[in-house]
Amino acid sequence: MECNICGSTEFLPGFNGRIANGLPPMCRGCRSVERHRIVRRIYLPLRPLLDEWRALQFAPDRSVDRFWFKEYLGSSYGGENTIDMIDTGLPDGRFDIVISNHVLEHVRDDKLAMAEMLRVVGAAGVVHLTVPTPTYRWETIDWGFPDPKVNEHYRDFGADFAQNMVRHFPGLACAAVVSFDPVTGAGDLVYFFSMSQDTLGRMGERWNRHAVPLTRVF
User: Fold this and answer.
1) Where are the domains of the chain?
2) Quick count: other Cβ atoms within 10 Å of Cβ 36?
3) Beta strand ranges found along 59-208 (DSSP E)
4) Could you give the percent of the chain with pLDDT greater than 90?
5) Count of Cβ atoms closer than 10 Å to residue 121 Cβ
6) Residue 189 pLDDT exceeds 80
7) Residue 106 main-chain phi, psi, to 5 deg
């Protein structure tokens, strides 16, 4: 087993001693866990596209490398560079891609956040989202407040996540990409939303060449 981010072959239990598929998931070298390496595997085929893309990432993590992009801005919660996902204050079309891993469940209104991210990337841009375990629940449950019993989440997303989004925003399409952690074998879905079929199509061609499975949600 080798970390596809830093190349380390040493791994530790995760938070509170967590084990995944009977294996320790945290890389000793870069401290990545499953979801970081899953996203990294999906992005590697996209590298030829990223050189000209301007990226905004909420809660920067190890899944992507900031130096892949023409321009990169990270927003860390509680830091000097905190950007409100619902009201960024950024111009229309300021970025080509917004990246958000395990953030949307902490936002009081996921539809308002999506509307703002779509505005920021413009008609040809992409919004990348991952949310905790959407494949383990049939329908999203939203209780409307940050519950301290579940890490201050406002909701548990279900398998209807992508469909709910594309139905709410006319013209929105989604590529749901399947990938697996090379260390633990854990799998996940990574969602790429865009108003541009052309942009998602160019990304899909890159994934097809590298045998990365995906499905289209309309």
Assistant:
1) 33-217
2) 23
3) 71-75, 97-101, 126-130, 141-147, 153-156, 173-180, 187-194
4) 93
5) 27
6) yes
7) -95, 0
Q: How does DSSP assign 40-65, residue by residue?
A: HHHHGGGHHHHTT-EEEEES--SSS-
Amino acid sitting at position 92: D
Mean pLDDT in the chain? 95
Nearest to 130 by CA among 161, 169, 166: 161
Instruction: Note the pLDDT tens digit of each residue in 77-119.
Output: 877 789 999 999 999 999 999 999 999 999 999 999 999 999 9
> What does the block give as tokens for 83?
């950007």
Residue showing tokens 């413009």: 122
Residue 196 has pLDDT above 90, yes or no: yes
- Chosen CATH of 33-217 out of 3.40.50.150, 3.60.20.10, 3.40.50.300, 3.40.30.10: 3.40.50.150
Report the C-alpha gap between 115 and 113 in whole angstroms: 5
Average pLDDT over residues 33-56: 97
Distance between CA 179 and CA 215 in Å, rounded? Answer: 12
Tokens of 61: 């993590």
